[in-house]
């Protein structure tokens, strides 16, 4: 059983603040069977080189979210930088 999305959103807050310094943000888009889906939001003024790579973000955020909810088994980040 997973915790509510508010618990996961709260756990992400510190990392959202760090990303916001570089003009980016994270959005929780869904939770399904222990898999947390996040979207990395970048804008025209975002320092995309300042943000960790997608695999590194997923690894760090998995640790953070598992601490908040041990039922989390995977984090998938929709990263628009991969389309660049």
Structural commentary:
The structure is a single chain. A three-stranded mixed sheet has the order 1-2-3. Strand 1 and strand 2 form a beta hairpin. Helix content is 38%, strand content 26%. The chain is globular. By secondary structure, it is α+β, with helices and mostly antiparallel strands. It has one domain (5-83): Fe-S cluster assembly (FSCA) (GMP Synthetase, Chain A, domain 3). The model has no long low-confidence stretch (mean pLDDT 93). Residues 10-75 form the NIF system FeS cluster assembly NifU C-terminal domain. One of its GO terms (biological process) is iron-sulfur cluster assembly. GO terms for molecular function: iron ion binding; iron-sulfur cluster binding.
SSE order, one letter for each helix or strand:
HEEHE
Determine the mean pLDDT. Answer: 93
- Number of beta-strand segments: 3
Question: CATH homologous superfamily?
Answer: Fe-S cluster assembly (FSCA)
SS summary, helix count: 2
Principal-axis shape: globular
**How are strands sequenced across the largest beta sheet?**
1-2-3
CATH architecture: 2-Layer Sandwich
Structural class comes to alpha+beta
Strand residue percentage: 25-35%
* Main β sheet profile: 3 strands, mixed
* CATH topology category name: GMP Synthetase, Chain A, domain 3
CA-atom Rg in angstroms: 12 Å
CATH class category label: Alpha Beta
Low-confidence stretches: none
Intertermini distance:
37 Å
What level of helicity do the residues show?
25-40%
Number of domains: 1
